[in-house]
């Protein structure tokens, strides 16, 4: 075989590989590393069985669905949130549809803003199950208001709950994991922990802070390879996050009941989260297009990403000021154009 023919074949193979990757990306609903792990990596059903998993924000949305899927894997569950009656409801459904018994689920009411209670809560989990294998930091609240109109109390609440509360609980659990030299700390961040989005200045700030904290914490744990830090960055997912989002005052939420059919199904997002845990991935992006594309543009083509973001921001703010639901009206139109 001549060198010319060999080079031609190599170029053809490279071109075919590129085409395959492009086709995978067009159909993707997560970053390609995560999708590869889902296809060829370790299965949650093999890796997570018999673990003790503590889930905050377990009373609704992603946290609730995570509890249901974990209950089918034979784990021991700790469910935390502020609304005890909702936690009881989630527990009942886990027992009805999962593979767990009463003794396998602990309901532990928790307010992340009450940082003085976190040490006691951690001790309660250790007393009940003897260990914490996985901490899932899922609690949080979003925001829908222009910065100029927003009370400083809203920013304080967002930082207290989304950032400081999460950091506080992590610091309480971390010494136990260091002592055992193993554990997984999984934090549900957001697409806006990477990019920027109007009407969410305080929320974006809290999520950017979380990403910076956990990325840096990972560097401090290099001598403990058994302890893994995973940042989960979802795009729009079906949940109550917009309904419960703060507005310009800390006492007001949007109460939005807008259609969320354009968002990713919660069950799909959670399944990909379980794959992340099973494969110890450091950071994952979970979103349908065009939101997944925006992750990549912000990472690799920031100038173009800023141009697109500013165009989108102008329309979103106009919708917000005119009283039109800023999320559904804009995101649905963008997704329709992409499709």
Automatic annotation (TrEMBL):
The chain crosses the membrane at residues 291-309. It holds the Pfam family adh_short. It comes from the Eukaryota. Residues 1-28 form the signal peptide. This is Dehydrogenase/reductase SDR family member 7. InterPro entries: NAD(P)-bd_dom_sf (IPR036291), Sc_DH/Rdtase_CS (IPR020904), SDR_fam (IPR002347), SDR_family_member_7 (IPR053011). The keyword Transmembrane helix applies. It comes from Odocoileus virginianus.
């Amino acid at each position: 075989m001549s060198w010319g023919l060999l080079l031609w074949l190599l170029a053809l193979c490279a071109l075919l590989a590129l085409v395959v990757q492009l086709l995978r990306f067009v159909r993707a609903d997560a970053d390609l590393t995560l999708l590869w792990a889902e296809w060829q990596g370790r299965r949650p059903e093999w890796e997570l069985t018999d673990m003790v998993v503590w889930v905050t924000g377990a009373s609704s949305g992603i946290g609730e669905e995570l509890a249901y899927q974990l209950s089918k894997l034979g784990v021991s569950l700790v469910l935390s949130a502020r609304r005890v009656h909702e936690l009881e409801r989630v527990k009942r459904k886990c027992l009805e549809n999962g593979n767990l018994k009463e003794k396998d689920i602990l309901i532990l009411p928790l307010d992340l803003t009450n940082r003085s209670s976190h040490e006691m809560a951690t001790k309660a989990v250790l007393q009940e199950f003897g260990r914490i294998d996985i901490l899932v930091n899922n609690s949080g609240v979003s925001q829908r208001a222009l910065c100029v109109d927003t009370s400083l109390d809203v920013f304080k609440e967002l930082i207290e709950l989304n950032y400081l509360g999460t950091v506080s609980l992590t610091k309480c659990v971390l010494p136990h994991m260091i002592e055992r030299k193993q554990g997984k700390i999984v934090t549900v961040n957001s697409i806006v922990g990477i990019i920027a989005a109007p009407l969410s200045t305080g929320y974006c700030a809290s999520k950017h802070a979380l990403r910076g904290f956990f990325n840096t914490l990972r560097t401090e744990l290099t001598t403990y390879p058994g302890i893994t830090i995973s940042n989960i960055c979802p795009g729009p997912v079906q949940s109550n996050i917009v309904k419960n989002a703060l507005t310009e005052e800390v006492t007001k939420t949007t109460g939005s009941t807008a259609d969320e059919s354009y968002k990713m199904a919660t069950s799909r997002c959670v399944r990909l989260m379980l794959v992340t845990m099973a494969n110890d991935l450091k950071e994952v992006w979970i979103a349908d297009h065009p939101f997944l594309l925006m992750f990549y543009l912000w990472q690799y083509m920031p100038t173009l990403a800023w141009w697109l973001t500013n165009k989108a921001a102008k329309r979103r703010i106009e919708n917000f000021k005119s009283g039109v639901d800023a999320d559904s009206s804009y995101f649905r139109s963008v997704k329709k154009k992409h499709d």
